[in-house]
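Structure first, sequence second, as always.
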């Protein structure tokens, strides 16, 4: 069946038919397509058409909400072609567990607690029902002809025992699976996941959504604080001096075996397990000794691999991967591999960073009319570099405040201002009456509700923060959703802050990629991604219009920006920019 036959909607969005065709034809593809392009359904149509036999489509996402989009699209496709595809979203075992679901317990502790709970009634019920799960799979697939909310699915499978074990067992019957990046990027989880899928990597058709998130692989990293060791020393009568010695000294790369022997790590691990087992009987679910030992065990294993760095920085111990290309390498064995994002530009940079030099690339044009968005930059006088901060002090923040307020006056809608850091938000906030991004994710919905009820406002946020990605600044109108944003102001390019970790990484990147590449890969790509995520908040439909203003005079970096921005950018003085923005609205 051709891709177009799977498409479940009456008509394509602008350029969407071309996007689907490219996805269908490509074996390895890096795709940058803007928000609103219909990437999810396009990818599924292309993959379903290219699928043969029992091959499985696996969608990796960073968040549960992103995975939910693919489930909804698969339900629409199933209904359109009247074919019961089994689509499952596999979430973390800890999230689904009806016994040990707890915010205080970390994942590794949870895994051990689960093993220690030998009399778990949910595991026993699962074992009793394991032979009828294929029938359950067929039932769920039939129900996929309409979208089923995840809590309802979990409730249904819980009738057969542990919901995680049931869903994991259903994977072998699946057509499409949505899961976290970790299931294939973590080597240990990858082997388990493939085994449960009853598939090898070359039998997968693999989609990595929001693939810009793979730049630094923070989700694979770990850290250990001195506070955790102090708490471990209180729960276990033991001399932790070798562990404490790792924290002593300047920022530095480390070899774990220079401080502590493998036998001592194993001993701490066994003791941590005993503490967990003892506390399980008393209703407690954590052990700091186990956390320390688990980190040290990971550091000892990582020294056998070239793609990890173990270092001490600012009084904490860190274990982090070096190169995204090494972590992604096993995924290149998939029959079909798609990395897509709305901000995967410049694509050639990501090809280098991800080790996909032979992959095809596709950069989808903006799906909204060009006249809906006007771009402005400044000649000189404002930037958030360390040099400017030291030279001008508070005067710099007063200048930013004055320009922001003048621009805001030109619009009847809200102005959304993105700064490089929370520190700068606070400094400029002293001179502007603005709503500031909440420091807790739990307060984001409350903040957004307050914004909608207050009308035109200035909103201060941080590039790469909670309000820069995945948030819809829209309200319902008679004609559909409408953006409440009139201006997005990027008040300083959000370059990563130079620190010891960056220094170490830069050295390795220079060796691997060549002279001059480290700054491009480690500073420019992350900066550009944050900026593109931020400005993508403005235009969410063909009816929306907005001004995008870059308040940073380091215009040499615009050569890395998408062609549309480079060609449309109007560069003005700080005195002229508010009037130029005003005229663009008429």
């Amino acid at each position: 069946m051709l891709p177009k036959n799977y498409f479940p909607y009456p008509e394509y969005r602008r350029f969407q038919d071309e996007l689907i065709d490219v996805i269908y034809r490509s074996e390895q593809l890096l795709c940058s397509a803007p928000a609103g392009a219909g990437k999810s359904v396009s990818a599924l149509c292309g993959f379903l058409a290219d699928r043969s036999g029992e091959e499985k489509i696996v969608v990796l996402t960073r968040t549960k909400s992103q995975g939910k989009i693919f489930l909804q699209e698969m339900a629409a496709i199933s209904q359109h072609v009247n074919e019961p595809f089994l689509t499952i979203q596999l979430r973390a075992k800890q999230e689904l567990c009806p016994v040990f679901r707890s915010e205080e317990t970390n994942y590794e502790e949870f895994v051990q607690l689960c093993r220690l709970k030998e009399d778990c009634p949910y595991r026993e019920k699962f074992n009793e029902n394991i032979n009828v799960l294929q029938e359950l799979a067929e039932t769920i697939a039939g129900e996929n002809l309409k979208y089923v909310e995840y809590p309802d699915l979990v409730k249904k499978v819980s009738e057969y025992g542990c919901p995680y074990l049931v869903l994991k067992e259903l994977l072998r019957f699946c057509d499409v699976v949505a899961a976290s990046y970790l299931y294939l990027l973590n080597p240990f989880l990858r082997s388990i996941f493939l085994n449960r899928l009853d598939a090898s990597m070359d039998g997968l058709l693999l989609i990595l959504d929001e693939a810009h998130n793979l730049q630094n692989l923070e989700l694979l990293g770990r850290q250990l604080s001195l506070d955790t060791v102090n708490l471990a020393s209180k729960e276990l009568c033991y001399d932790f001096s070798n562990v404490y010695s790792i924290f002593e000294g300047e920022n530095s790369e480390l070899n774990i075996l220079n401080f502590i022997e493998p036998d001592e790590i194993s001993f701490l691990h066994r003791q941590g397990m005993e503490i967990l087992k003892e506390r399980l009987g008393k209703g407690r679910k954590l052990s700091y000794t186990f956390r320390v030992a688990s980190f040290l065990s990971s550091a000892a294993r990582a020294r056998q691999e070239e793609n990890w760095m173990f270092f001490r920085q600012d009084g904490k111990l860190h274990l982090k991967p070096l190169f995204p290309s090494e972590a992604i390498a096993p995924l290149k064995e998939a029959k079909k591999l798609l990395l897509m994002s709305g901000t995967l530009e410049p694509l050639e940079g990501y090809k280098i960073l991800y080790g996909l030099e032979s992959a095809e690339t596709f950069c989808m044009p903006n799906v909204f009319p060009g006249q809906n968005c006007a771009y402005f930059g400044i000649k000189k006088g404002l930037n958030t570099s360390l040099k400017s901060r030291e030279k001008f002090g508070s005067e710099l923040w007063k200048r930013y405040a004055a320009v922001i307020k003048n621009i805001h006056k030109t619009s009847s809608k809200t102005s959304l201002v993105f700064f490089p850091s929370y520190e700068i938000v606070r400094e400029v906030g002293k001179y502007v009456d603005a709503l500031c991004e909440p420091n807790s994710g739990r307060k984001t919905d409350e903040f957004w509700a307050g914004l909608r009820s207050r009308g035109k406002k200035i909103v201060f946020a941080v590039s790469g923060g909670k309000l820069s990605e995945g948030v819809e600044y829209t309200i319902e109108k008679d004609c559909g959703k409408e953006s409440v944003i009139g201006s997005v102001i990027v008040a300083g390019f959000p370059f990563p802050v130079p620190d010891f970790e960056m220094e170490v990484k830069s050295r390795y990147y220079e060796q691997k990629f060549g002279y001059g590449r480290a700054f491009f890969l480690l500073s420019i790509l992350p900066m550009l991604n944050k900026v593109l995520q931020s400005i993508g908040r403005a235009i969410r439909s063909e009816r929306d219009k907005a001004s995008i203003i870059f308040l940073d005079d380091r215009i040499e970096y615009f050569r890395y920006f998408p062609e549309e921005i480079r060609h449309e950018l109007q560069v003005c003085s700080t005195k002229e920019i508010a009037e130029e923005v005003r005229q663009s609205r008429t």
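Margin note: The mean pLDDT is 88.
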